[in-house]
Structure formats: C-alpha cells, structure tokens
Amino acid sequence: MSSRREFITTSLGVTVAGLFGTQLGFSQSAPHSGLSILVLGGTGFIGPHFVRHAMERGHRVTLFNRGRTNTHLFPDAEKLVGDRNSDLTALEGRRWDGVLDNSGYTPLQVRQSVDLLRNACDQYLFTSTRAVYTDFSAEVMDEDAPVGPKDVPESEWSGYGPNKVLAERIVQDGFGARTLIARPPVIVGPGDRTDRFTYWVDRLDDGGNVLVQGDPDDPIQFVDVRDLAEFYVHLLENSITGIYNTEGPASALNTAGLVHGVRAITATASKLHWLPWDFLLAQGETPQDSLAFWQPPRGRYLNYGRMVNRRAIEKGMRFRPLAATANDTLDWHRSRPAAAQQTLRAGLTRDRERILLVRYRDSR
Ligand SMILES: NC(=O)c1ccc[n+]([C@@H]2O[C@H](COP(=O)([O-])OP(=O)(O)OC[C@H]3O[C@@H](n4cnc5c(N)ncnc54)[C@H](OP(=O)(O)O)[C@@H]3O)[C@@H](O)[C@H]2O)c1
What we know:
Elements (H helix, E strand, L loop, with lengths): L3 H16 L1 H4 L11 E5 L5 H11 L3 E6 L12 E4 L14 E6 L5 H11 L3 E7 L32 H16 L3 E5 L3 E2 L9 H9 L1 E6 L9 E2 H13 L4 E4 L9 H9 L6 E6 L1 H6 L27 H5 L7 H13 L3 H5 L7 H13 L2
Parallel strand pairs: 1-2, 1-4, 2-3, 4-5, 5-6, 6-10, 7-9, 8-11
Helix pairs in contact: 3-7, 4-5, 6-11
The structure holds NADP nicotinamide-adenine-dinucleotide phosphate.
The site of NADP nicotinamide-adenine-dinucleotide phosphate has 23 residues, from helix 3.
C-alpha cells in the first residue's frame, strides 16, 4: 500500500518531470494551476472534501446547487443557485476549465447540464458508481466489464445503476475525448451519511461481543472520500480523461483485515464472532439492508470486492492507510450530535446483535 509520503513524492515527481520534460525525455506536461472549477453539488459528502482540497491547491471553485444543504460551507467560494431538474439559468454564458458533476442521478439532469456546458468547459468529471456493472461475476472486473441490466430492454431501465449507465453515455456523447468518469465503490470517511463504514468504527470502539457477518476471507473494497477528492483534483490538474474504477485499498483486503485494522485504533476490548451468511440470511438480515457494506462473494457478487483499480493507480490515485481512515472517521463520528451517534443508518442494533449471537450459539 502506498504511503502519503510516496504520494507527495510522486506528485512532486510529476511536477519536476513536467518542468524538465524535454531534458528527461518525458512527454508529461506540468499540471495546470489556478483552474476555474464548477461543482454541480459541492455541499454534501464528496463535494466539501473536493472543494477544500481544490481551494488549498489554489483553484477557483464555483458551487451550483439549490442552496439547501450545508449552506454555511465555503463563504469564500462563488455560489450559484438553481435546480438541476428545472433551472440552470445561473450557468448560462459562463466558462470553466473543469466541471465536477456529483449530483447527476437521472439522464434528464445530466443531459441538461451536458448540453449547456459542452462548449463552456474543457473537461466534465462525472461521479458515477460501481453499480453501473451488469453484475460482478466477470473474471476481470475492470472498466470494460459489461454495464447495464442484462435481458431488460433499455426502454425499461430504471433505478440508480441503470440511470447512471445512461448518464455516463450522455456525458460521453457530449464531451467525447474530454470525458472523465469515476465509478466509486462505497465511499467512507468523515462526513459519510450512510454509516456503512462508520458502523464498524463505532461498534468496535464500543467493544464487547461483536457480530461480524460472513467469512473472514470475504474480499472488501471501499474508498476514503479524501482519496477520491484528491484524485479528482489530480485528474483535472493533469487533463486526464477516461473511465476509472476508484476502489481502494491499493491491494487486496479481506474483512478480517478490515475488522482487525479498525479494532487496532481503539483501546476497547472486543471479541469477534463470525456468523455465516446463510445463517444471517435465514434470520432475515441482508447485505442490501442491515448488513450493508460488503457482499457474500458468490453468484452475481462473486468479484464485487475484487474490482480492478489498476487504471486509476496508474493515473496517480493513492490510498491512505486504513488506520487513518478509521481514526478520522471515529473522531468525526464522536463529534456528531448524540442522536446521530446513537441511531446509525447501517448495521445491527445492539439488541438485534445480541439476539442473533444467542440464536447462533443455540443452533450449534
Ligand atoms: N456515497 C457513496 O458511497 C457513493 C458511492 C458511489 C457513488 N456515489 C455518488 O456520489 C454522488 C453524491 O456525492 P455527494 O453527495 O458527496 O455530492 P456533493 O456534491 O457533496 O453533494 C450533493 C449536492 O447536490 C446538491 N443537489 C441535490 N439535488 C440538487 C438539484 N436538484 N439541483 C442542484 N443541486 C442539487 C446538494 O445541494 P442542495 O441540497 O443545496 O441542492 C449538494 O450540494 C452521487 O453521484 C452518487 O451516485 C456515492
């Protein structure tokens, strides 16, 4: 796994190679500085980390949103108000070097912004999702694996993943070679509103008898929101185009590695109890709901935790250590209001966990 220090060294290496490209025989040009960047969204989860990092790097950021979410953020950034469903007039007649589209969920939303911005910016970076893939059973789950629902006429596609496939196509049609698409897995870290990773830092910090679903060898992937945001800025600064799986960590991790890695940042004693998927499924718990975060590696989810991230790494994506993600997420979580700390949006309640542990013990 690459360290932060290696990332900085690599970044500096790119800069030096850019400055002395001709003498060293590199074709890479220097990263762009002082970019103007429009963020469609910007005040949810990825957005704030991206905006902060881009501004620290000296770029000028414009935010476009409805002015409802986290309106206190970024008083020094330009803010344009509108609605992706109905009113883009605030974007008319303007120009930016790059656009980050975090808030496009439907083909209509993306078509409207692409039509308006295709001649008004150099690059369009669309945040898509791992959910575009048909399934996760291909032997090699790289960016060329099949996307979109199988055996369903396109006219009947609906829902999150299929809509993102259609939206990706609209970006590609509008921007051609200037297209940038990221397909993140579960995004974790400070500010995450889904609690899928936060559940584990909270649970292990609480200690005691901890139920862990599945098998210790189940593969797992996720991305720290800050690694994603930094990669986004790096892509725009270097005019990099293409489609990228943005799964972390850099090398294979199993759920034992995840849980022990998170446990290592707490000082609380805990005992881990691995309960098989089949037992939990029979009890009505599912990876789509209460057990969200990783999947049993079989059937259509065979390689869900083994997505190939080589292309992103080759273009400069780096991943901070799990301990850093876990520590910072726990610090952030403990700073949340009491209600948010007590009622997580993912994971088992402590009562349900106790019941399942007893039932499993009695079943053996
Ligand atoms: N979380 C994950 O694990 C995960 C995984 C894979 C992919 N993704 C992708 O990540 C993206 C979400 O990222 P994020 O929430 O972190 O983005 P963000 O840029 O931080 O925040 C979402 C923004 O969209 C704005 N917005 C919402 N509806 C709008 C509308 N109709 N018109 C204009 N602005 C609107 C919100 O502000 P207002 O409310 O003020 O309008 C907010 O600023 C999505 O594309 C999702 O598919 C997420």
